[in-house]
Amino acid sequence: MTPVFIALTLLAYTAVSVSGLTFLKLSDGNIFTLFGAAGGTLYGFGFIVWYGILTQLPLSVAFPIAASSLVFGTQIVGYFFLREPIGIMHIAGLLLIVSGIAIVSLASGRP
């Protein structure tokens, strides 16, 4: 597979998973609503895409990329669509999380 296809697949995984999580949040914990069903379906489809990604990339590469993209994706959707506040400490925490993921990712495979 080409790097462009893998990148687009990771982007699709992020979009589908974040959309699923958003609908699940909007369902207020009731999966038997339209939002709940849509969220569960999209999140399930995201799992299938994730499984495909793992057939093409090592876990130590795929997971940090996916985790970082989900961290940023959920924050963006939370802020713009769910009207969730993001303060300075929140942003600092996000940067620490992503920095930690990057460090672990860079260190993977090294003794």
Please give a quick description of this structure.
With 111 residues, the chain is mostly helical. It contains four helices and no strands. Helices cover 78% and strands 0% of the residues.
Tell me what the structure shows.
This protein is mostly helical and 111 residues long. The protein has one domain (3-107). The protein is built from four helices and no strands. The two termini are 29 Å apart.
N-to-C span = 29 Å
Helix/strand/pairing category: mainly alpha
Report the count of strand segments.
0
Q: Helical percent range?
A: over 70%
What percent strand? Answer: under 5%
Using the alpha-carbon principal axes, give the shape: flat
Return residue spans where pLDDT drops below 50 for at least 5 consecutive residues: none
Report the sheet with the most strands, covering strand number, pairing sense and barrel closure.
Answer: none
Q: What's the helix-strand series?
A: HHHH
Number of domains: 1
What is the residue-mean pLDDT, rounded to a whole number? Answer: 90
| Total number of helices | 4
Rounded radius of gyration (Å): 15 Å
Key features of this structure:
flat, 78% helix, 4 helices, 111 residues, mainly alpha
